[in-house]
Amino acid sequence: MKIKTAWEKVEIARNPKRKTSLDYIEEIFDNFIELHGDRTFKDDKAIVCGLGKIGNQNYTIIAEQKGRTTKENIERNFGMPNPESYRKAIRFMKQAEKFNRPVITFIDTKGAYPGIGAEERGQGEAIAKSMFEMAKLKVPVIAIVIGEGSSGGALAIGVANKVFMLENAIYSILSPEGYSSILWKDSSRYKEAAEKMKLTAKDLYDLNIIEKIIKEPEGEEQEVFEIIANELKKQIKKTISQMKKLSKEQICEDRYQKFRNIK
């Protein structure tokens, strides 16, 4: 099987037909109930929050959601969260801690929305606050990168005890186009940038940034999706079972040490 280049993986991660967060949520969790609003401004649909179960274990789920059709993408703001999305996420993180529910996040965004309104409502502060609150949560947190994980928009919900990543997903602090524009003043060198950025699952596993690569086998789309979803479910159950043996303080310390020990 031909080894894919970093840019080829970027293209796969960005494919509009790729399975979205809600696809995985519906396949992995039972009885998903979506919860809405940040109680300050509005309910931004670029991030979906809610409650779900696997067996007898309850979870809080926070997921970045892209659309497929033009109408869905407009409704979801093309998967680019506004500040109210992150404030909604913070609200339900704190609720999860109150009721001792593990938090599962799904990362899939080209970045936080950079519009004037978002900046006026404190986009940078909302991202920073989300990371700050996640860092001190006293319940287990698993982040799963399923597609395009770019910029602070992705990092905002990535401060987890364990980070899993699909084999053809990407995870970086900005896009290859942005990287090449900044570094070389030439956005046409995006393919070269992708190689240098170490944004693939293998690169990030080697750097200790992620703990698990979820394989994406070749085959019929629905069959492959079910294989991936089943593996994610298995890894979530296994990880949470292990982490439930830790005290609240140990869970928080585990997350702190994870980020202190990154190469």
Radius of gyration: 17 Å
> Averaging pLDDT over every residue, what do you get?
94
Whole-Å distance between the termini? 30 Å
The total beta strand count reads 8
The parts where pLDDT drops under 50 for at least 5 residues are none
Structural class by secondary-structure content: alpha/beta
What does the largest sheet look like? Answer: 8 strands, mixed
Judging from the principal axes of the Cα atoms, what is the shape?
globular
- What's the assembly state of these chains? single chain
Order of helices and strands: HHEEEHHEHHEHEEHHHEHH
Short key terms for the protein model shown above:
alpha/beta, 19% strand, 12 helices, 8-stranded mixed beta sheet, globular, 8 strands, 263 residues
Task: Show the helix and strand layout.
Layout: H1 6-14, H2 21-28, E1 30-35, E2 47-54, E3 57-64, H3 70-75, H4 83-98, E4 103-109, H5 116-120, H6 123-135, E5 141-150, H7 151-155, E6 162-166, E7 170-172, H8 176-184, H9 190-196, H10 201-206, E8 212-214, H11 221-243, H12 248-260
Helix pairs in contact: 4-6, 8-9
Describe the structure.
The protein has 263 residues and is of the alpha/beta class. Helix content is 46%, strand content 19%. It has twelve helices and eight strands. Strands 1, 2, 3, 4, 5, 6, 7 and 8 form an eight-stranded mixed sheet that branches. Strand 5 (141-150), helix 7 and strand 6 (162-166) form a beta-alpha-beta unit. Helix 4 (83-98) packs parallel to helix 6 (123-135) and helix 8 packs across helix 9 (190-196). The longest helix has 23 residues, at 221-243. The radius of gyration is 17 Å and the shape is globular. The two termini are 30 Å apart.
